[in-house]
Amino acid sequence: MYVVEPADLPELPRPRGPASDRKAEVRPRLVTDLFRLIRPSHAAKAILLVPLALIDTSLWNLSTVVEVALATVAFILASSAVYVGNDIADRHRDVHHPVKRHRPVAAGRVGIRVAYAYCASLLALLCAVILLTPGPYWPIVVYLLINIAYSRYLKHIPLVDVGTVAVCFVLRVVQGYEVAGGRAATWLLVAVFSMSLLLLIGKRRQELKTGAAHRPALHGYSLELTNWLLQIASVLALVSGLMYLRDEGPFGPQYGQTAMLLSTPFALFALFRYLQIQLMDEGGGDPVRILLRDRVMVANSMLWAATLGVTLVLAHQPVPL
């Protein structure tokens, strides 16, 4: 007996199975994970620090602004490659951290070969930017070398680990001044270094509460020690920042003291707010999130910037009496 099917009936669509759904989702998920690997929010470090050279109004011209912008992009690429490399090196430790275990490499969503290729691509782009704008890019080279040593050895040595990362923040500032053709103020470098130490020590303080399996250097820290270190770094950051505004800032001898006086309440409030988040709200594990997303901190920073902006205008274009 033969069964003849009608030829004019349309072919029913085949249901998509789990395998086809997975293939459709792989590509956008991979792109998202690759984007997360480079820590896009951490680009703020270069965006805020490298252009500090432009505070010196004597360096302002179109060529300098373009060179500083390209130096900022170069440092973003360099730090992105470092983040990918660190995630590859730390993937076995990150699985013990409640947050870091969800990172693409530690979670297994991005393969090791793909991560290595991604890191190499970022370094290739970095080389292209540097070749397009030949200039003094030694701070980026030093930054990469320091991070190689940090990833292999220095990150496991208590106190040296935070000091090494703080130096990398200073290198961002130096890079901006190098391409701009100026000289970085001493008090400014001290302020950036000490402020970086403050944020890094706060991060270590929060990491202590999750255990030391993901970061062996935490065995050299305690909550009491980090509390003392926070106080020391806070004082150094406050004093050095105010001394920069008074003696070496772009306000000149007449308005330098005014800038220091007006900045004192804003600087103190910023430190008080950060310590409040650390000690009362038990936050501070992600310094970038605090600086960019805490509404109180953002409002204080905007008012502070506006105050210094008006002071800078008055310093260079005084109102005639």
From TrEMBL:
<feature type="transmembrane region" description="Helical">
    <location>
        <begin position="159"/>
        <end position="178"/>
    </location>
</feature>
<feature type="compositionally biased region" description="Basic and acidic residues">
    <location>
        <begin position="11"/>
        <end position="24"/>
    </location>
</feature>
<feature type="transmembrane region" description="Helical">
    <location>
        <begin position="184"/>
        <end position="202"/>
    </location>
</feature>
<feature type="transmembrane region" description="Helical">
    <location>
        <begin position="137"/>
        <end position="154"/>
    </location>
</feature>
<feature type="transmembrane region" description="Helical">
    <location>
        <begin position="110"/>
        <end position="131"/>
    </location>
</feature>
<feature type="transmembrane region" description="Helical">
    <location>
        <begin position="223"/>
        <end position="245"/>
    </location>
</feature>
<feature type="region of interest" description="Disordered">
    <location>
        <begin position="1"/>
        <end position="24"/>
    </location>
</feature>
<keyword id="KW-1133">Transmembrane helix</keyword>
<dbReference type="Pfam" id="PF01040">
    <property type="entry name" value="UbiA"/>
</dbReference>
<feature type="transmembrane region" description="Helical">
    <location>
        <begin position="296"/>
        <end position="315"/>
    </location>
</feature>
<dbReference type="InterPro" id="IPR000537">
    <property type="entry name" value="UbiA_prenyltransferase"/>
</dbReference>
<keyword id="KW-0812">Transmembrane</keyword>
<feature type="transmembrane region" description="Helical">
    <location>
        <begin position="257"/>
        <end position="275"/>
    </location>
</feature>
<dbReference type="InterPro" id="IPR044878">
    <property type="entry name" value="UbiA_sf"/>
</dbReference>
<feature type="transmembrane region" description="Helical">
    <location>
        <begin position="68"/>
        <end position="89"/>
    </location>
</feature>
<protein>
    <submittedName>
        <fullName>UbiA prenyltransferase family protein</fullName>
    </submittedName>
</protein>
<keyword id="KW-0472">Membrane</keyword>
